[in-house]
Amino acid sequence: MSSPRVLFCNCTYAQVVPAEVKATVLRKLCESGVAFDAVADLCELSARKDASMKSLADGNPVKIAACFPRAVKWLFASAGAPLKPEATEVLNMRVQPADEVVAALFRPELQANLPVGKVTAGDAPKAEVAT
Amino acid sequence: MSLTSQTTLRVVLYEGAGSQPMAPEDRFAAIHALLSQGFAVTRATGQGMPAPASRNQLLVVGQFDGGLAPAAEDAAGEIPLRFEDITELDASGIAAKAETVRVETGAAKHGEWKPWFPVIDYDRCTNCMQCLSFCLFGVYGVDEEKQIQAQNHDNCKTNCPACSRVCPEAAIMFPKYKAGPINGDLVSSADLQREKMKVDISALLGGDVYSLLRDRSEKAKSRFSKERDSDKALKERQKCLVKLAAMGDIPPEVLMSLPSLEEIARKSKEAKAKAESALAGRATA
After folding, report:
1. pTM, two decimal places
2. Three-state SS for B236?
3. Neighbour-count burial for A97-107, b at 16+ CB within 10 Å, e otherwise
């Protein structure tokens, strides 16, 4: 399995993620040699159905530093880019301390943690139709 | 132009062959400045694998050898590429450069819309259409299989989580909301019980929350117009709005922007018809 991609969400337009946690995680990513993607706001990406979300959800392992795994799971699904539960680890910067998030991001192995419910993200709605 | 049809500009901070890596502190400052302006940023190095480029435009910035940005283009001709050297620029200069390119390329401006909209947890959703019936702003619709979905994200009223309050399964999230389970935190059985109670209360009130809110708001306005002491009137008004807002955690500005009773009735009827049609469509499918 290839090393996980990293996605960092800055949640720029809200104050729900502690600023010091976001800054510490981003700083550590910048100090490292890893390539990564950072987005201003994952919600905005989802609303725009940004094609880069499909690239991130293509089945290769991905670690996402953002907010609650349940929210991240369905933000991707609603953008038509369902994440693979076995290949996704979400770090929750709303509740996890920065050190914990950073340690998990740089850990070589991936600890999949998307909530798995009665249906999978693949069951999410298909193309839009006029209503 | 809709959110999904606008192009966006992604900035690639290139630090591979043919360029000089940035100092970590400068890199942090640059990426932080770009994110603060709403840009998506890919840090590309010789190690690791960032997400492949999307259909959107790319601005590739780097401290290129000799201070000269390469004149390259996408071999497939699919992605508009632009290179800029940033050797002499600080973080704010890099962000300003990105903004200039964004304007020149006609890419979407970030930050004009706070991304606030319902995200449906289909592990929980039973497709009951209560959200579609409830929302007056046309945020919800159905897909080709008559499954509920959020369609018009930018119609949603910022900071208003009211539709999540009528969902009997706590299936509607607003990731930027302050508390669980609406923010995406796991749903507990206590949460479900609370949601059920709210729906019951709504039914007891006649099932038309909007009319109730509007009615109370009108009564309050009438009372204030007769009030001579403007300070006292203002205090009363604030008190009343706080009460109304607390009923569903609805921002006062949303309450104040509610349309007339006739308009509410019309929109409500339309939304209910949409919901009934969707449910009927699923039943016959």
Report:
1. 0.83
2. helix
3. ebeebbebbee
**Which comes out higher in pLDDT, residue A80 or A124?**
A80
Cβ distance B187 to B271 under 8 Å? Answer: no
| Residues whose CB falls within 8 Å of the CB of residue A5, separated by 6 or more in sequence, listed in order | A36, A37, A56, A60, A61, A62, A63, B48, B49, B50, B51
B215 in helix, strand or coil? helix
Contact A85, A120 (CB under 8 A): yes
User: How close is the nearest chain B Cα to the Cα of A104, in Å?
Assistant: 16
Exposed (0-12), middle (13-18) or buried (19+): which is B203, by Cβ within 10 Å?
exposed
Can you read off the two tokens belonging to residue B143? Answer: 């897909």
Which residues from chain A sit within 8 angstroms of residue B133, using beta carbons? none
* DSSP codes, B120-178: E-TTT-----HHHHH-SS--EEEBTT--EEE--GGGSPTT--HHHHH-TT--EE-TTSS
pLDDT in tens, B3-40: 888 889 999 999 988 899 999 999 999 999 999 999 99
Tell me how far apart the alpha carbons of residues A117 and B100 are, in angstroms, rounded to a whole number: 45
Per the CB < 8 A criterion, the answer to whether B267 and B210 are in contact is: no
Which residues numbered 1-60 in B keep a CB inside 8 Å of some CB on A?
3-4, 6, 8, 10, 24, 27-28, 31-32, 35-45, 47-56
